[in-house]
Amino acid sequence: xxxxxxxxxxxxxxxxxxxxxxxxxxxxxxxxxxxxxxxxxxxxxxxxxxxxxxxxxxxxxxxxxxxxxxxxxxxxxxxxxxxxxxxxxxxxxxxxxxxxxxxxxxxxxxxxxxxxxxxxxxxxxxxxxxxxxxxxxxxxxxxxxxxxxxxxxxxxxxxxxxxxxxxxxxxxxxxxxxxxxxxxxxxxxxxxxxxxxxxxxxxxxxxxxxxxxxxxxxxxxxxxxxxxxxxxxxxxxxxxxxxxxxxxxxxxxxxxxxxxxxxxxxxxxxxxxxxxxxxxxxxxxxxxxxxxxxxxxxxxxxxxxxxxxxxxxxxxxxxxxxxxxxxxxxxxxxxxxxxxxxxxxxxxxxxxxxxxxxxxxxxxxxxxxxxxxxxxxxxxxxxxxxxxxxxxxxxxxxxxxxxxxxxxxxxxxxxxxxxxxxxxxxxxxxxxxxxxxxxxxxxxxxxxxxxxxxxxxxxxxxxxxxxxxxxxxxxxxxxxxxxxxxxxxxxxxxxxxxxxxxxxxxxxxxxxxxxx
Amino acid sequence: xxxxxxxxxxxxxxxxxxxxxxxxxxxxxxxxxxxxxxxxxxxxxxxxxxxxxxxxxxxxxxxxxxxxxxxxxxxxxxxxxxxxxxxxxxxxxxxxxxxxxxxxxxxxxxxxxxxxxxxxxxxxxxxxxxxxxxxxxxxxxxxxxxxxxxxxxxxxxxxxxxxxxxxxxxxxxxxxxxxxxxxxxxxxxxxxxxxxxxxxxxxxxxxxxxxxxxxxxxxxxxxxxxxxxxxxxxxxxxxxxxxxxxxxxxxxxxxxxxxxxxxxxxxxxxxxxxxxxxxxxxxxxxxxxxxxxxxxxxxxxxxxxxxxxxxxxxxxxxxxxxxxxxxxxxxxxxxxxxxxxxxxxxxxxxxxxxxxxxxxxxxxxxxxxxxxxxxxxxxxxxxxxxxxxxxxxxxxxxxxxxxxxxxxxxxxxxxxxxxxxxxxxxxxxxxxxxxxxxxxxxxxxxxxxxxxxxxxxxxxxxxxxxxxxxxxxxxxxxxxxxxxxxxx
Amino acid sequence: xxxxxxxxxxxxxxxxxxxxxxxxxxxxxxxxxxxxxxxxxxxxxxxxxxxxxxxxxxxxxxxxxxxxxxxxxxxxxxxxxxxxxxxxxxxxxxxxxxxxxxxxx
Lengths: 516, 488, 105
Prior knowledge:
The structure holds three protein chains of three kinds.
Chain A: H1 4-21, H2 27-43, H3 46-50, E1 59-67, E2 72-78, H4 80-99, H5 108-127, H6 131-140, H7 142-152, H8 157-190, H9 197-200, H10 207-224, H11 233-240, H12 243-268, H13 270-274, H14 276-299, H15 303-323, H16 327-358, H17 369-372, H18 374-388, H19 394-409, H20 411-436, H21 452-470, H22 473-490, H23 494-497, H24 503-513
Antiparallel strand pairs in A: 1-2
Helix pairs in contact in A: 1-2, 1-5, 2-4, 2-5, 4-5, 4-12, 4-16, 4-21, 5-6, 5-7, 6-8, 7-8, 8-10, 8-11, 10-12, 11-12, 11-15, 12-15, 12-16, 12-22, 14-15, 14-20, 15-16, 15-19, 15-20, 16-18, 16-19, 16-21, 16-22, 18-20, 19-20, 19-21
Chain B: H1 9-14, H2 16-31, H3 41-61, E1 66-68, E2 73-75, H4 77-104, H5 108-127, H6 131-149, H7 156-187, H8 192-200, H9 205-225, H10 234-241, H11 244-269, H12 274-297, H13 302-322, H14 326-354, H15 369-372, H16 374-388, H17 394-408, H18 412-438, H19 443-446, H20 453-471, H21 474-487
Chain C: H1 9-29, H2 33-58, H3 62-92, H4 97-100
Helix pairs in contact in C: 1-2, 2-3
């Protein structure tokens, strides 16, 4: 049994432990250590990618009993879906900490401590194969995020932090209800108490019970995504959080919600998931999110709030693709989640860089920065193009795949997708024009361009933008099996019906021919 | 009936904790005027020795479980769990009280003696197999607590606290006793198992109503002791007015013991009447949670906030009691243990902050503690987060087990409302954390002396307990589960 | 032992109930601390009456013994209660409940 997943999970915690013993009087040391720990956290994720076999399901599995009387175990594992998210978390976690080098000046030790704790929590969410373990990590993530917003945030940070906490807590508490119902149903059928996800998948639930559990899970996950109408915490939290906080919040935390839908709602509750009524509702909510988010972004005067609402819009695409319930939609949704993680993080980093220089988020205060900060402007341009889905960048691949999936589901959905894409281009280009082009005001004339460190923060993300945009094949390869698992689970026989080669049986045939 | 009224050898071992506590309680009381003036620590050490010895004895007594005093007292897993709990609570309270009493310039001797005797009463309560024994234990514990609540007799708030506690407590006890009398009249016995047998015999139908009435009367008494609605009104005033260590003690020890007897009586003796008293418990649990949480939202005095929070947590445990199942009992036991750690820790910090005369008891007086005394603030944050129910702390698993048991018993509405309540409660616990970390230090935090050793030890111990139960809950839960099976 | 003129047992129980109710009423209505305290004592003694009545009815001695215990406890409570009341009186020179309640909602 390899222990790599535990290493991935506990590296940030080890870093945290050492951090607590460093003297507060040496800020450079603290910053250096935090960055080292976060970088190490990222490095340990790489062997996962190297050793991952796209032809198999869960790998690097570790299972140790935790609370036997409840049937809860310390069970970790990665498949294609979690692998991508784990890599994203590792990368963004490191970049977020790196980006805070000069912007955070007070209470450094606590700041980095919370980030490392957050890192461990997020990793745990994506690695957990036991529902109780998942829930523990899910809730655990709230505490450091609350503190990060509340202590180092903007002027309305207290309100934003408390709103974030209470919203998410209410959602997760109801999700717990769903988990427990599933737990007890399993006991009734099998006589065994267990929280293990693989075991729980065998439970057959009646329609009504599934329906209720679906909505309980929905409340928990939809608050996180966030789906309309549970999204109102997001603009406040994203705007008031410090830059690194927003990066993590948008880049990773929101993905926890969609991950929840893909990993738990769809596979554990397949009948409800494919119920036409539910699909309709999800579709409508997603479309509202796409269009409403985009329209509100268009009207924003606050740069950061614009990016925040753009997140609502982008994740609307993801949920739409998810509930198209076909391989294209689901794969596109997952890829777009990764893309959103990358591009929106970059957008927040861009805002952060501007804010560090001018200490204002008003779009009207900027203008003509292209001449003053050319490197920054180019990077911003690439980011905006990536976010709006321009080929040959990453956003295009995700969006076109989702579009394909949505079209197979319903023409209406595809139509609104396109509307959303168009609006996305609109608000992003307009933003770019207002901030980067035009007259340079004297206030902006002397702003320094991006430093080496700041460029270093953008570099890996830019690399990913181009990589996914130009050569997305490895990503789709990794996703093939998990997507097939999900689609087959919700719509058994889909692949056969549509005359597509089923990755699940194909690999079984391969392994029959080629036993290792 | 055998003519021997002396306990046999084995029974001595089973009763050893009570014997130790009684001896030490008396000795401390008598030694109090005799102690040498210079050594303030003599009585303190003596009391600690007594409590630790009693703790050891309780664990040792578990090796030979059984009954004593002709079946009036029963030493089983359930009783042992609670004995260890209340003695542990006593130890933590003593550790907090020492410095507090020195600071308030109060006579320590009688305080320690009262504490020992109160713990003695609670030990008798939780091992009682018999209604009168239960009553005696309850009264010993309560009377000692009445005095402790008013210990600083020159302080008006202490006086008022003691008075309210005494009057309302005696009032409730009288109801309890009346219920006991009626049970005795109907069933002809006060032994719990025999009462249950008597209630199960057919032909008891016309008196079935009377038995329910008696159970209701007893419920009034129990509900008071555990501060369940609508008999919770004493709790805010008493916790606010009593000295902080005493409030810590009251919120953890007597409450746990009272829940123990509530569980024992209702699950053993009144089990045949279950469908009559379950609705009442249901309603009480709901009201307690809601009133406790919503009243706490508006509080500005930290002791009053902790008091209402204590009421709310009693509500959660009531949910577990309402389930009337083994799982529910185990969940309640686990919760009471974890709650003791969290709450004593929180009150300990309050005891430290409030300074002499308990001047600084507003939440605002904690402002800026994160800057001035980061360790204290961090520990208080841990306790607050545990009270909210954040994972990795004991509070999370406590609530988890209770709501799991409730769902298993089909109390869906209660679970939903309970979970929503606990989410809402996050607001007022977070407010404390906000004040500590997000506001500038004020006069009270600027002049704060460093943490004394006893207090530091208690806080670390409580925090360690919180994390231990939060990460490895099975240590306690398995034992609780086995013991709960015996209560049915 | 039942003669024609003996008092039926139920009357004792009714008396006990009435006394208990009077005690409750007194506790709730009266304003002077000593009177409130007396009401509590009345309640406890009403219960004693019940115990003895039931004990007689069941032909057991247990009830009598229980009432001994109750009396002892009541005495202890009385001692403690009066001490508390005395402490209050020393501090405030008033025994009216309204004057003493300072801690509000």
